Structures are given as structure tokens and as C-alpha cells.
Amino acid sequence: MALPSEVQSGVIHDIGYRNYTGPRLGRSYATRSLYTQSLRAAYGLGRSGKSKVLPMLVLAAMGLPAVVVVAVVVITDLKSLPMDFTQYLTSFGLFPEIFLAAQAPVLLSRDLRHHIVPLYFSRPITRGDYVRAKFAAMASALMLLMTLPMAVLYLGSLLAGLPFGTSTVHLLYGLAAAALYALLYAALGLLIAAATPRRGFGVAAIMGMLVISSVIATFVLGLNGGLRHDPVESANWAATLSPATLVDGLVNQVFGLVTAPQVLHAPGPLAAFVFAAEIAVLVAGSYGLLLRRYRNV
Amino acid sequence: MSTVIKTDGLTKRFPRVTALDRLTVEVQPGVVGLVGANGAGKSTLIKILLGLSPATEGTGQVLGLDIATEGPAIRERVGYMPEHDCLPPDVSATEFVVHMARMSGLPAAAARERTADILRHVGLYEERYRPMGGYSTGMKQRVKLAQALVHDPQLVLLDEPTNGLDPVGRDDMLALIRRVHSDFGISVLVTTHLLGELERTCDHLVVIDGGRLLRSSSTASFTEATQLLAVEVTDAEETVRERLSTAGLSVRADGPRLLLVEIAGEDTYDTVRDTVAELGLGLVRLEQRRHRVAEIFADDSAGHIGSQATQATPATEATHAAQADGPDDIHTGGVPDGTAV
């Protein structure tokens, strides 16, 4: 009696079990594989069509305004970009936040929910490798999201014949800002996502954290006279209350992008140091808690 | 590699319970059943064998590698099929198994090739390209087995692989597990709380209870013939019993119309036949009793409790009593072997 499948297709031949004698590439390869898979998953690649919709929409929303800006510059023959690279990231900062809220739970909550985590740990990688791969994947996905529009702006500014040196330096400022956003957002977002196996809770909690902290920061800024025509310098300390304003304030101060007193910035070199230290503590602390979270899974 | 798993005085204590208590066991290549009630320490043992959880005391080797220091090397050579569901629903079986192969260190091309092979071996064909959320329990169990085998391990640890399957699916899975050893040459450690299915599948059984080793021996020795004769009559078993006792045989009742007669010699069969015929009764059954794996729980655990009387709680005694009642199923209130879930 033949197997039904052989009858139906007529091409499947049972050639028996074959042993694998090829190379086994070990832990670091496995960690890299997890990184690649997670980065792809953050954009819905290798998953169902439905899960590609949101990340791709956010990517488009983040990139399209850059195309418009470039078009305006080229057509109207402007002498500089109407919007600096870092300014672009601040103006469209909502999109990386949405991306983080939607996709950090995809990377962590999904593995918890479907009990895939123990399966990974039954393979060569360690708990530390898992956290490292997921963190790198989330940060890279965010970085990619923010680099795309800046690349468009940069190429456009070269196309429009804007000074090469200035554009390049400001692009580097933008990339540095994007890296800080990516690290800080990834650390905070993943920590929250790892706390719940429910994706919906993760999305809501991350978005809530970002929105509420930024509302509080703006509120405190306004209370201290930071929103007036002649802003009170010390009101800028309010930027420490929210991840987005924290990076924005630090970058503006350090790279000398404070073209007007209304631009949010760390008030003074000491403040810049405090802002930087806060970012470092938040990233390292979240990463450490994340490691601890997985120690007993 | 002669010994697949070897433990020596393996102990695991949690703050409130002792999950494993000085477990010393040696497992040879083949299909080995790890038997024990829920909470007997099976999953704890698997975790320790994978090098995921350190033992409180004692040592152990898997494939000749030390569990305390060579965990990553063990995990590269061992496959693990967890008891619980572990499949993301929005990913296809192919995509998932390829990823797990790479997580075991296989290069991308080899991972794809072996995934195609192994999914065919476990019996997944066209459906492998569909998201796994729509799979039946039987298909999911096959994918779980496939991910444990895809990197061609030397040993697979299967945790309750027949859970939730209907009788046909269970038979298929058991046949597949036999093939994993006979055709693929991979040693198997399979846990279950259903004893009947292990009698058919395993070469060797390791029985643990309350973290202690009850017995470790070949399946044949568990089921060897006893010196007992089961006699089933149509009626009046009390009279039969008296007559046989008078004839000098040792007899005890074992359920309605069923008597167990100790075999004194060849003429015991004649005595039973003649006695039943004289009384004008029908003889339904006359057969030499075989041991069943379940008996070990009825007998040995009773002794275990006796010697550990101070530690035994009423709850465990109740569990043991229930085990004695349900011969094929250690899991109290579980489903007897061969019955649809």
C-alpha cells in the first residue's frame, strides 16, 4: 500500500533519513540569526501579510515628507534645507514612537505569549544572547526608520546644489540623534514589552509612557515660562521628563543647533552632561532589568 | 557513545520543595520512557539535562558532556520538544523550522534543505506553507517534533508528545517516535503519564516519583510473566475459591468473577479446569498473568510511603491510592489509555 501523498503527487520519493554532517556554527551565529529574524519580523517580513501593513505605513509616513521637502527645495531653489535633519526627526517624532509601541511587543510579547522563549533556551544561545539580539534588532529597526528620510533629505540637498560640507556635518548630527533615539526607545520599549505576554497591553503601555511623559514635559516647560516669547532658560530642564525631549534637548545643545531661544536645549554644558548621563542610565538600567527579566524564564 | 544520559545523586531543591532527590540513573541508546505523575520531577530533570537549570547537588552527563559546564555543547547536540504549545500562529511551519534550525547553528542553505526533509518525515506536506495558527493539534505536534529533529541531534527529549491527541493521532505519534530511533538512529527520552503507550513504544523505562527513582529497567522486565493464573468464571466465584483452597492452592479474588491462583505446577491448570467443570460453571478466561507497568506504582510507591511515613502528606497518599485504582493512568483523574480525549 503506497502512501497517499505518493499517489497524489507522484514526485515525492522517500529517500530515507539523512544525517547532517555539515558545519554547526554555534552560539554567535545563532545570535546573529535571531537578530536578523527579529529585525525582519519588526517590519513584518517572514510573517503574514497583515503584519506588514503597520510597519510599512509608518515607514512611508516617515519617508514621504522628506520627499516633499526635497521637491520644494529643488523647485523653489532654496539656499538651505527648510528643516534641519534633527529638526525633521523632532517634527515627525510621532512615527518612531508609534513604530516602537507597535513592534516592541512583536519582538518580545509574541515569544512570551506563544512560549517560544524556552525553545530558544533549549538551543545554544544564552539568555544574554537573546536579550542582546532582540535589543539590537529593535534599535536597528528604529534606526532604519529614521535613517531613510534623512538619506532622502541628504541626497536631495546634494541634488539641489547645497553646500556639501554643511549638509554632511548636519547629516552626521542627525544620525547621532537617531542613534540616541533608537537606543533609548528600544531599551524602554522592550522593557515594557517584556512585562506582558499580551500584545495589546504592551502597545498601550509603551504609547502611554511616551505620550504621557511628553505631555508632562511640555506642561512643566510651560509652567516655568519655557513657552513664552522670551523663554526662561532654566525651564529647559523640563526636557529631562520625557525620552523624546531628552534626546532633542541634548542634541540641540551639544551640536550647537540652538538657532533661537525657543529651541529646546539642555541649559548649559553641565546640563548637557546631566542629560547624557540620564540617557545612559535609562538605557543601561532598562537593559539590566531586561536581562533580569529573562534570568528565570 | 554507549551511555546517553548518566546522573549521579542528582538533586534539585527549590525553596519549598525538593523536585529531584538523589537521582542516579543511566540511560542507554534507544527509546527510553521517563514515567511519573505530574509533579514527579520529569520536567525539572529535562531542564537540568539541557543545562538550563543548575542542580543543587550531584553530577550528570548527557552524551558524555557535563551538564554543569558544557550546557551549550549539549544543547547543540540535543533536540527538545516541549510539552506546551510553542508555535507562533502567524508564521508557516517551513519558516519556523528553518529559523529553529539556524538557531541550532545550521547554515541557511542546510537549514532549508533539512527543514524540507524533516517536515516530510514527520508527515507534513502542502500545509507546511500555511500559517500554523490554522493547524490541527496533530499537525502542531508534528511541527514541534520536526523542530526538535531538524538539526539532526543525537538525542531528543520529548515532553508529553501525545498530549491532546486522539487515539489515531496518538498511535501515529508513537509510531513516529519508534522511527526516530529505528530509522533516524536518534536516541529518544520520552516522558508521559500514560503508561499503556510506553509499554508499546519504549525499550527501557525509568520510573520516578516525588523526585526519587522508583525503578529503571527494560520494558520487558516490567511486563514479564508472573506466577499467577487469572481465572474468570461465569458465576459463583466464592464457591470456586473455597474448592481451590481446599485443593491446597493459594487463591485470592481480583474483581468480580475473577480469581488469581498461584501456579504450584503444571497440574494447577488441571485442578482449576476440573473444579470449574464439577461445579457446572463456564470458564471465561484461564491465562498466565503478565506484570503491567502500572503495578509498580501500586506496589513500590506504597512501600515508599511506608519508609517515608514522616514525610508523606495526606495529599500524596491520596494520589497513590488513586494510582492504584486507575491501572493505566498515573495522572489522577486523567484519561485511560486508548480513550478519546
UniProtKB/TrEMBL annotation, chain A:
This is ABC-2 type transport system permease protein. Keywords: Membrane, Transmembrane, Transmembrane helix. The chain crosses the membrane at residues 53-76, 135-159, 171-194, 201-223, 270-291. It comes from the Bacteria.
From TrEMBL, chain B:
Residues 5-235 form the ABC transporter domain. InterPro entries: AAA+_ATPase, ABC_transporter-like_ATP-bd, P-loop_NTPase. It comes from the Bacteria. Residues 308-341 are annotated as: Disordered. It holds the Pfam family ABC_tran. The keyword Transport applies. One of its GO terms (molecular function) is ATP binding. Residues 308-324 have a biased composition (Low complexity). Coiled coil: none annotated. Keywords: ATP-binding, Nucleotide-binding, Transport. Belongs to the ABC transporter superfamily. This is ABC-2 type transport system ATP-binding protein. It comes from Kitasatospora paracochleata.
